[in-house]
TrEMBL record:
A Pfam short name: PEP_mutase
The organism of origin for this protein: Rhodococcus koreensis
Keyword tags: Pyruvate
Protein name in UniProt: Phosphoenolpyruvate phosphomutase
GO molecular function terms listed in the Swiss-Prot or TrEMBL record: catalytic activity
InterPro entries per the UniProt record, alphabetical: ICL/PEPM (IPR039556), Pyrv/PenolPyrv_kinase-like_dom (IPR015813), Pyrv_kinase-like_dom_sf (IPR040442)
Length: 250
């Protein structure tokens, strides 16, 4: 079996700008095994798909312990490095989050700046960076280089004026980079010019979101992207196909 430190190193090394790692977003052992069978090198777990799979809402509608239970099931079923969307941290301290993730066998995380437990407010830029820094320090103390993917929701929440939104996102994510992030995630669907600006001006590998049933996998490399994940869209595409199949029999 591959050690957790080896998995963490592998996950980090897969992030190559211009030659992005594709991390299918899974939610249980079944979907994870589908991705393994398709030949992927690593996986990510999305909060929205996991929540849907147990009949609860996204935006921290599940508890961290419920998430860890699912992560443990996935890591027991597959050997690939696994990154986990921990939303805004479930109101927990970084040390508790890192302890739980490592204990469940995960080697990466997404941390967003929307605080769901506080009415969906956006953390201030330095506040978010400080939380990222706390996660890095906790991972270092635990002896595992957990791959920290710092996310901002400026685009999806359309916060502030559009005219300077890219500038504000870059400034916010640069603070997260200085605090110890490994990957930066300006989540949203961007035009090519915006995506190129993000990848060229941000100091770390950049995560983009892909639509698995619509996007051209080859389109992300030329934009400088280092990582592509699917968010809720893989599950949604499967659901649409399932509805067609089931509709023939209903």
């Amino acid at each position: 079996m591959t050690s957790i430190n080896e998995k963490a190193t592998t996950l980090l090394e897969l992030h190559r700008p211009g030659n992005p790692v594709i991390l299918p977003t899974v939610w249980d052992a079944w979907s994870a095994n589908l991705a393994v069978s398709a030949g992927f090198q690593a996986l990510t777990v999305g909060s929205h798909p996991v929540s849907d799979s147990i009949g609860k809402p996204d935006n921290e509608g599940i508890t961290f312990d419920e998430l860890l239970h699912r992560i443990s099931q996935i890591t027991a079923a597959v050997e690939l490095p696994l990154s986990v969307d921990i939303e805004s941290g479930y109101g927990l301290e970084p040390a508790r989050l890192i302890e739980g993730l490592i204990g469940a066998g995960a080697v990466g995380l997404n941390i967003e700046d929307t605080v769901h437990s506080e009415g969906g407010r956006l953390r201030e830029p330095q506040e978010h960076a400080d939380f990222v820094g706390g996660l890095r320090q906790a991972a270092d103390a635990a002896g595992v280089h957990v791959v920290v993917n710092a996310r901002t929701d400026l685009f999806v929440k359309q916060v502030g004026d559009e005219s300077d939104r890219v500038d504000r996102a870059i400034a916010r994510l640069k603070l997260a980079a200085e605090a110890g992030a490994d990957v930066l995630y300006p989540v949203g669907r961007h035009d090519d010019a915006t995506q190129k600006r993000l990848t060229s001006e941000l100091p770390l590998p950049v995560n983009a979101i892909g639509l698995p049933d619509q996007d051209d996998p080859a389109s992300f490399g030329p934009l400088g992207v280092a990582r592509v994940s699917f968010g809720p869209f893989f599950q949604a595409a499967l659901a649409a196909h399932a509805a067609t199949l089931l509709g023939r029999w209903s």
